[in-house]
Design a protein that fits this description.
The chain is α+β, with helices and mostly antiparallel strands. Among the domains are: about 70 residues; about 170 residues, Histidine kinase-like ATPase, C-terminal domain (Heat Shock Protein 90). The chain is about 60% helix and about 10% strand. It has 8 helices and 7 strands; from the N terminus they run H-H-H-H-E-H-E-E-H-E-E-H-H-E-E. The protein has a 5-stranded mixed beta sheet. A two-stranded antiparallel ribbon has the order 1-3. A hairpin with a 3-residue loop joins strand 4 and strand 5. Helix 6 packs antiparallel against helix 8. The longest helix has about 130 residues. The chain starts with a helix and ends in a 6-residue tail after the last strand. Bound molecules: adenosine-5'-triphosphate and magnesium ion (MG). The site of magnesium ion has 5 residues, from helix 6.
Amino acid sequence: MHRLLQRQIKKHFGNLDSLPLEWQSFLTDIDTAYCQFDDDHRMIERSLALSSEELLLANNQLQDLLKTVEGQVAERTTELTKANIELEETLINLKKAQVHLIQSEKMSSLGQLVAGVAHEINNPVNFIHGNLGYLQDYIAKILNFINLTQQNYLQGISEMESLAEEIELEFIKQDLPQIINSIEVGTIRIQGIVQSLKNFSHMDEAEFKQVDIHKGIDNTLMILDHRLKPKSSPWRIQIIKQYGDIPFVNCYARQLNQVFMNILTNAIDALEEVNYHSKSDPKGDNWDRSPSIQIQTKLIDDCFVEIAIADNGNGIPEAIQQQIFDPFFTTKPVGKATGMGMAISYQIVTEKHRGKLTCHSTLGKGTEFRIRIPINSEHI
Ligand SMILES: Nc1ncnc2c1ncn2[C@@H]1O[C@H](COP(=O)(O)OP(=O)(O)OP(=O)(O)O)[C@@H](O)[C@H]1O
Ligand SMILES: [Mg+2]
């Protein structure tokens, strides 16, 4: 009999045999039910134990699987990150290659154009200039001849005298030599410009050479001369040169001239943007300063040359100062600019000459670019 039922029967009735028969059979049925319950209970416990074991096993398997998947994901992520870095590097290299291509194209086409124009102008100008001496000589002789003829043969001949008056012969005799002189001054000036164009393009010289930086700046300024008088303002841009005592520099002269050209063009563009007022109109913000570009050169630590080009334009907002060296970055109207000037200049200074190109700008005050290049970048 089930121990729990035995205990209860003992407690309440003492002995099972003392109970009437039908009670005894009733209690036997209860006993069967108790035992049945115990069996069921044991079975449930067993199956519960089994299920939790299975659950544990399944859980362990799941955790193993998770670890494997996590490992694979980490592996893939590393691979992807690596691929991404490689892609970024490729993109940077591609951009560099693109800048390089555009630069070489821009450089060579500009250089060729300038050299071509210089060559084309050179011959006719030399022709004119070379003949001016003879012209001066012939005109002097002809004038002398006319004077003598006038004195000896034409005096008193009214027809000739009135013709001389009509054509203002006396004025022509005075003006003609002056015209020849002006033509001579003009051709000398054109020859100067042609020489600057030739110097600027350096087409006839080796790429890497010793140059006088000041000459390069002066030639560039000469080429830009027509732009130093902005159309929109009554001012002429003042160029303040503070050239220091610097040695000749070993460099890619043509490319460095391109840098001067790009920076000076930007400075002129910036100054054209400023709304200058005449001094008689003190209402304008800029009435007290006239547009100027200051060019300073100096020797640093005996092995670097620094060229600082500063304008007193509107300056560059801080937010975009970081972007100005990016290829294709421009704030100028579409079609007017390519946004390549500073990117090319940066590459020429930093990569070609292992120098530094920095921008220092204050809004409302102006912008200064500093080019620092080694005197001999080949030996660095
Ligand atoms: N001196 C300056 N003053 C004010 N802004 C400047 C100056 N120099 C450069 N910048 C800014 O930097 C930008 C980039 O100059 P960058 O010379 O590279 O291109 P760009 O002048 O716009 O075009 P381009 O390729 O024709 O030179 C300019 O659009 C301008 O916003
Ligand atoms: Mg520019």
